[in-house]
Amino acid sequence: MFKTLVKTGRNTGHALRMIGAFGSAILWGVSAWQLQDAGPDAGAFGVGQSAVIGVWALAAASALGGLISLRRLMQPAQTRPRATAAPGLEDLPAESDFDPDAIIARHLAQRASAPPPPIEDDAAQPAPPRPVFGRKGIGSPR
User: Fold this and answer.
1) CA 81 → CA 78, 84, 90, distances in Å?
2) Is residue 114 situated within a structural domain?
3) Count of structural domains, the chain
4) What is the pLDDT of residue 105?
5) Which residues cross the membrane (predicted)?
6) Most buried among 22, 107, 118, 135, using CB within 10 Å?
């Protein structure tokens, strides 16, 4: 039941996209035809040939989108067998010599035997002098 519902929804989506794309292609095609008929003699409304070619390109792109949706709508449902394991994993050996507990124990042993890093003493360094703002050397504060 669910597969049928999903397939119906998918087909409805393809059909609506196809109708929209072909409708857009017709709109752009009629617009390009009208602009082409206007030509440069049409007075203030005259458009250049590049604009007409651009509108025809939009019509062609919309028609291509409609054809792609039509092709997807006509394709039979593709059923793919579900994989039980990722490809290439069946080649790996079942038993491995990987032991995470041994790796952690080795790391802790190396960490314990290494000398601790030197601690820098911030108190031994004098603080840098602070900048002085305002007038210098005039009387005491009020």
Assistant:
1) 10, 9, 17
2) no
3) 1
4) 92
5) 15-35, 47-70
6) 22
With 0.70 as the threshold, say if the pTM is over it.
no
Question: Does the residue 48 lie in any domain?
Answer: yes
* Range(s) of the domain holding residue 70: 2-74
Least confident of 14-18, 43-47, 49-53, 71-75: 43-47
Q: Residue 39: which residues within 8 A CB-CB, separation 6 or more?
A: 46
